[in-house]
Amino acid sequence: MVRIPDSHPRKKSLESRQKIVDGSSMGLLADSAMIAHGRGEAFDYLLGERTTESAREAIRESAARLGNARRPVISVNGNTTVLAGDGAIRLAAVLGCPIEVNLYYRTPSRVKGLISLLEELRLNVSQEAAPDGFYGDWKETVEGVSLLGESPNFKIEGLEGPRSNCTAEGIGGADTILVPLEDGDRCEALITLGKEVLVVDLNPLSRSARMASVTIVDEVSRAFEGILSCLLNDSEYRQAEWDNLKSLNGSLKEISNHFSV
Ligand code: PTJ
């Protein structure tokens, strides 16, 4: 792997690209994962590779909804696990919720491989210092995060094919789902089932961005860090009436402001 100097202005973006390349050669990702990543990169470039003001608001709102949820779950696919699996573990630890591997292009070997990667990340995260604002036994809390998805026993109603497979302990029984890089049909099916769907998607025009209860238009690892920080250090914020289309329009304005000359 090529070492990218710290002074490189796009170091983080190039490192993420490498994670996708490595995940792909390990057989963890869908064949089209690089296309999806490239689309995300293009939007991130347009957004200025930063968490914008409207994304910050959506992060606060999502954190409040996750904090109030009765049964939250974090749904991860291949790209999310490879790019931000460690962030998902930290969030699940603080929320006391499971992580479920749920794939659009589901194969048993990819699910198994992604769960093994998450197990490895769970071990690493359990050995880190606790994040600022966390009180308790970090190691024990992280070790308690359950990783679901290998043995589906539930189907998402209204969806066809293997992507409807999930677990009753996770997505099936959840009231609130944090789901980055979601597909529009599944987002719609989950909303129809009455669930709160919190999407992370760099494309404010995508169908899932438009279908979700709250959409965070931000890069997934930045979004996870932001939610974690809100959960631990922003307890004053209360869940609000949320106008998601207004927030998405805010993201579009931020893109055009960033590039106006
Ligand atoms: O692992 P699987 O089998 O579940 O497949 C995962 C992919 C992502 C390949 C699959 O869900 C897919 O094809 O997704 P789409 O329809 O290409 O949508 C991906 C969306 O995520 C696009 O709108 C991208 O802009 C956005 N995106 C890509 N990378 C990131 C991102 N959003 C946030 N952070 C990213 N790093």
Task: Offer a few descriptive terms.
single chain; 261 residues; alpha/beta; Rossmann fold; 6-stranded parallel sheet; two-stranded antiparallel ribbon; 10 helices; globular; binds ligand PTJ
Explain the overall architecture.
The chain starts with 10 loop residues before the first helix and ends with a helix. Strands 3-2-1-6-7-8 form a six-stranded parallel β-sheet, with helices on both faces. Strands 4-5 form a two-stranded antiparallel sheet. It has ten helices and eight strands. The chain is globular and about 55 Å long. It has 261 residues and is of the alpha/beta class. Strand 1 (72-76), helix 4 and strand 2 (99-101) form a beta-alpha-beta unit. Helix 1 (11-25) packs antiparallel against helix 2 (33-47), helix 3 (53-68) packs across helix 9 (220-233) and helix 4 packs across helix 5 (108-126). The protein has a single domain (53-256), classed as Rossmann fold (3-Layer(aba) Sandwich), CATH 3.40.50.12640. Helices cover 51% and strands 10% of the residues. It has helices at 11-25, 33-47, 53-68, 78-95, 108-126, 138-143, 184-192, 207-211, 220-233, 244-258, and strands spanning 72-76, 99-101, 147-148, 154-155, 165-166, 176-180, 196-200, 214-216. The site of ligand PTJ has 25 residues, from helix 2 and helix 4.
